[in-house]
Amino acid sequence: MVRAAPAAPPLHEHYAMNYARAVLSRPYIFTIIFLVANIFVFLLMWSASGMESSVLWGEFPEDVLLDFGAKTNYWIQHGHQYWRLVTPIFIHVNLIHLVINMYSLWVIGPWVEKLYGSAKFVVFWVVTGAAGVLASYLTYFPGSQPGLIGSFLIKTTDGPSAGASGALFGLVGVLFVFGIKYRHELPEGFKRAFGTGMLPIILLNLGIGFAARSFIDNAAHMGGLVSGAVFAAVVSYKRPGVSTGVTTAWRVLQIAALVLVLGCFLMAARAYRQNPEAANRPTNAELAERNQELAVFKSAYATFQGAQTALVNALTKSDAAGIDQAVPQLDKMTPLNEEAGVLRDQLKILLGRAKKFVGDWKAPRKMTEAGATEQKKLVEDFAQWQDRYEKWYWAEGRKFGMKRTEPTPAK
Question: Which residues carry out catalysis?
Answer without folding.
Answer: 165, 221
